[in-house]
Design a protein that fits this description.
The chain has one domain. The protein has 147 residues and is mainly alpha-helical. It is built from six helices and two strands; from the N terminus they run βαααβααα. 39% of the residues lie in helices and 9% in strands. The chain is globular. The C terminus is likely disordered. The chain has a two-stranded parallel sheet with strand order 1-2.
Length: 147
């Protein structure tokens, strides 16, 4: 049973946890020098689990199983980079389905300040365009036409 039932529910405050190549993987080669990489120093991001996630772009299968097993309690499960769907669109769709949300508004965690605080206007535009491409390519349930 989902966390949200009997109505159409929209999650209006969700965040993507950006991996280091979050922006650069969505940037044309000609603009790569303008676009920053997300820093990964310190805290939980230096753990073995995060290093694996950076390589695979997904949570380890056993961790996904643990989170799915939480059922309705997924909402109070792991947070940040360790949450189901933190940076992987397939896992995020699974989390939305499990919790009963039809759509969600997804905000960046680190990328927006990185984009809009860039030194040059060219870097700001290149970074913002990469951010837009990422969302368009990865979160169709956010911007799609179905509710």
């Amino acid at each position: 049973m989902g966390h949200a039932t009997n109505r159409t529910y929209l999650d209006a405050d969700s965040h993507i946890m950006e991996l280091p190549d979050f922006l650069t993987s969505n940037t044309p080669q000609s603009q790569l020098a303008l676009v920053p990489r997300v820093p990964v120093e310190g805290g939980a991001r230096s753990s073995d689990g995060f290093e694996l996630a950076m390589k695979t772009g997904a949570q380890p299968a056993d961790k996904v199983e643990e989170m799915v097993a939480l059922g309705d309690q997924l909402i109070s499960g792991p947070k940040g980079y360790f949450a189901l769907g933190a940076f992987n669109k397939t896992e995020r769709a699974q989390a939305l389905d499990q919790l009963g949300f039809h759509r969600q508004l997804v905000f960046s965690t680190f990328a927006a300040p990185m984009c809009f605080n860039a030194e040059s206007i060219e870097a700001r535009y290149a970074s913002a365009a990469a951010l837009d491409r990422f969302y368009a390519d990865n979160f169709t349930r956010v911007f799609g036409s179905q509710i």
